[in-house]
Amino acid sequence: MNARPASAGDRDGKAAQDASATGDAIAGAFGRAVRRAREARGWSQEWLAERAELNRSYLGEVERGNAMPSLVTIAKLAHAFELSASALLSRCEGELAATEP
User: What is the domain extent for residue 75?
Assistant: First the structure.
């Protein structure tokens, strides 16, 4: 049986799968970074949500990696932690690097 060359549709589908997997990994790493920062301060989700002006259930989704936060949400969380957005994202990068093979 001869293998057929990959079509553009096949490549696009693979690229979409890869992007989704990457997005899931980033969302998970960001969520872990937020949870670690919150727990290090001894804060409840309710307290952080109030400080960041976010819904507590949405914050839970972010921490579990089930929601991809917007830049506004990242900025609100960073402000609540008294960090810069880049410092919070740097923690996310550290979480992401820790999970890479």
Answer: 17-99
